[in-house]
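Fill in residues.
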């Protein structure tokens, strides 16, 4: 028995047991992902989950206070009303500085505890401010195999948007009226990353329309991420529900355009390879990276997580023997 996770031996950790065990089993499995990170059992579970990916993963990002949590609540309500099973990964960078902020913040998501088909997991941004930690990426991979829709809420301007772009299918970037955010985004060079842009708090009227005009202008100068998708800029208010329906439709439309394109499988495969490269770079730097052929290793190992497990062991072995011979 693992004391931290309350799990018996990890071989029982499979998608089937998690599905059968409901929210409690998922909660425990997510804790096991953190506690037993890098173990073979976890790598197997994650590769199984990656293979059974079924959800549309939506990333919702933007600066603090822009209205992400409020919008997350609205999106959850809409998707649940349509009978979709929804998982949420809420990444909170403030917890890096004050542990209390995390729970305080996330209780703002008012979900029904008796609803089996909505699950919210909050996590700290850990080593990457506003970005996605390894735990967040693995939680997304697992939840992607269990729900119809996974919403990933992150805070940030800059680096975190590229993190979210590789871990999610549709990126929604929120901009606050009157904040000069669009200028910031242009400077940070992240205008190319979102698939949908929204100006929140549209009930603020002229300020919101002005922000939309700025974003339209900035977008017209930016490179397009996909040539068959033109990024909509929507005015949305969670207060009076303005634009919410358009947002829901835009999210669906982007997903169907992804699925219709023959790029989708390649896109998910690229996500695996990018993830593996990032992982090895963090652990072993450029020298480690130079020793692997990521696409081949993923195929050989049967998935990126097992590939990570095998490569890590091998590079550690090589490092140890080099040190010993010196
Ligand atoms: P987050 O930090 O991005 O998650 O932002 P929150 O969802 O917590 O919202 C920050 C503040 O903006 C809160 O006081 C909300 O009540 C307010 N807010 C959120 N959405 C709207 C909106 O559509 N209109 C207005 N006027 N205020 C909003």
């Amino acid at each position: 028995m693992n004391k931290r996770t309350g799990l018996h031996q990890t071989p029982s950790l499979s998608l089937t047991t998690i599905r059968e065990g409901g929210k409690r089993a998922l909660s425990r499995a997510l804790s096991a992902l953190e506690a037993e990170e890098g173990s073979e059992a976890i790598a197997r579970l994650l590769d199984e989950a990656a293979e059974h990916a079924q959800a549309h993963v939506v990333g919702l990002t933007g600066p603090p206070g822009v209205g992400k949590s409020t919008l997350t609540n609205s999106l959850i309500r809409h998707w649940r009303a349509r009978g979709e099973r929804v998982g949420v990964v809420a990444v909170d960078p403030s917890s890096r500085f004050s542990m209390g902020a995390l729970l305080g913040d996330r209780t703002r998501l008012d979900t029904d505890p008796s609803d089996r088909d909505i699950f919210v997991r909050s996590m700290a941004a850990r080593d990457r401010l506003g970005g996605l930690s390894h735990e967040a990426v693995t939680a997304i991979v697992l939840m992607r195999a269990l729900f119809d829709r996974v919403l990933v809420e992150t805070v940030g301007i800059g680096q975190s948007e590229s993190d979210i772009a590789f871990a999610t299918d549709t990126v929604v970037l929120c901009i606050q009226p009157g904040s000069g955010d669009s200028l910031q985004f242009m400077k940070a060079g992240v205008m190319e990353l979102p698939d949908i842009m929204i100006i929140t708090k549209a009930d603020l009227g002229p300020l919101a329309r002005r922000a939309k005009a700025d974003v339209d202008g900035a977008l017209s100068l930016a490179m397009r991420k996909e040539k068959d998708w033109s990024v909509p800029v929507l005015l949305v208010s969670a207060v009076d529900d303005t634009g919410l329906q358009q947002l829901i439709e835009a999210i669906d439309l982007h997903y169907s355009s992804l699925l219709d394109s023959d790029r989708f499988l390649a896109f998910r495969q690229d996500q695996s390879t990018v993830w593996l490269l990032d992982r090895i770079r963090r652990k072993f730097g450029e020298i480690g990276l130079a020793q692997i052929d990521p696409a081949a290793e993923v195929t050989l190992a049967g998935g990126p997580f097992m590939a990570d497990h095998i490569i890590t062991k091998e590079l550690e072995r090589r490092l140890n023997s080099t040190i010993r011979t010196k």
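Residues 5-11, 95-107 have pLDDT under 50 and may be disordered.
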